[in-house]
Amino acid sequence: MFVIVDNISELSSFFKKQVLLIKFAAQFAGDMEKLNDALVLRQFIEDMGEDVGDDEVQGLLRLLLTMMGLEAAASLAAHAAAGSSSAEETYSYPPLGSRVRRGRDWKWGPQDKGDVGTIVSHEKGGCIRVEWDHGASNGYRWGAENARDLKVVNEPRKLLVGGSIKVGVEVKRGKDWKWNDQDGGSGNNGVVYGTDEKGWVSVRWKKNGKTNNYRYGKEGCFDVEVVPSVFEKPAAPRKQTGSHMCWQWKDKIDEKDLWRLFNEDLQKTIEAAYSKDTKGTQKVQINNTSYDVNFKKMEQKNVSSNNVRSIRRKELSQDEYELAVAIEIGQMDIK
After folding, report:
1. Residue 183: exposed, middle, or buried by beta-carbon count in 10 A (0-12, 13-18, 19+)?
2. Exposure b/e, 319-329, CB count within 10 A at least 16 = b
3. 3-state class percentages of the chain: helix first, strand second, coil last, to nearest 5
4. 24 DSSP 8-state letter
5. Distance between CA atoms of 325 and 335, rounded to whole angstroms?
6. Could you report the per-residue pLDDT of 92-117, keeping only the tens digit for each?
7. Quick check: pTM over 0.70?
8. What is the edge-to-edge ordering of all strands in the sheet holding 200-205?
9. DSSP result, 93-132
10. For 261-279, how does the pLDDT look when each residue is reduced to its tens digit (9 = 90+)?
């Protein structure tokens, strides 16, 4: 292979990128999807401290695949560089099913909610559509306006146990597999890049990059199944987070006794006074009215009217505390 360069600096840069190509091939050996992905190559080179443009990265990708003897893949990369598209995908975009996060040109605020998303379709004019794991779906720039809102990440999509299959989920051979080594051999995983309501899924195999449609419920058959590690359990019921030591005063509503919470500031004031003298008295202001709180008798007395009410210091469970708070802020009827 001969290369014509204008100066030593350019030659040095060329050979440096060749070394990076070798490192790239070694890191992703056996993963045709990544080896044939210009974006992954570009990010790898940039992570190594080298700048590379879109046209250059396509040329480097073709060079890499040719060096590895992957003529068919090299032809596909050349097809991508020409901007060709199929009915399913535009090869100059990341493959359908790719996982993404906000990228260098993101300008859409919290639209992603800090979440990971999955590319579900390729749009015209340099745009792709992403379905975020929180459920929303939006279109983003991938070349439009010379911007890329997203970057590809290696964060497999998760499913709740019992959830329906989705684009971006990893699968493997299922109980009804009959397609020889289309998947690159037993034990290899693929990524779903299309689904339909008739029980079919489109899968790209990670080992060899091949794509095909498989039964996932069609005729009661499952050519593929979701990889077990994809599933995550529903969130566990909320655990008790401990108890709360609270000060309460006794109220009477509809002839029924009800223990009410002092407000948060008074809780602190009363507790601080109690910790200094458990038999003493503390003067407090409640709704512009003065009260004497007597710890020995566990009473509060209205200084003006001399009306007396019982008080108590009680440890409440988390549920008891939340119920008491709900009553104070009017979220629950008092019965």
Report:
1. buried
2. eebeebbebee
3. 30, 30, 40
4. H
5. 15
6. 788 888 899 999 999 998 889 888 99
7. no
8. 211-215, 200-205, 190-195, 170-173, 224-226
9. SPPTT-EEEE-TT--SGGGGTT--EEEEEEETTTEEEEEE
10. 887 778 888 888 888 888 8
For tokens 């390729």, the residue is 122
Q: Are strands 308-316 and 299-302 parallel, antiparallel or unpaired?
A: antiparallel
Token pair listed for 19: 């070394």
Structure tokens at 123: 């749009």
CA angle 323, 325, 327 (to 5 degrees): 70
For residues 197 and 164, give the distance between their C-alpha atoms in angstroms, rounded to a whole number.
Answer: 11
What is the identity of the amino acid at 279?
K
Ranges assigned E (strand) in the chain: 99-102, 117-123, 127-132, 137-141, 150-152, 159-160, 170-173, 190-195, 200-205, 211-215, 224-226, 231-232, 244-253, 256-261, 281-286, 289-294, 299-302, 308-316
122, β-bridge pairs: 128
Q: Could you tell me the pLDDT band of residue 333, with boundaries at 50, 70 and 90?
A: very low
Tokens for 7, please give them. 């100066």
* Residue 116 identity (one-letter amino acid): V
Rounded CA gap, 314 and 245, in Å? 6
pLDDT at 140 over 90: yes
User: In angstroms, rounded to a whole number, what is the distance separating the alpha carbons of residues 195 and 157?
Assistant: 15
Region 214-228 average pLDDT: 89
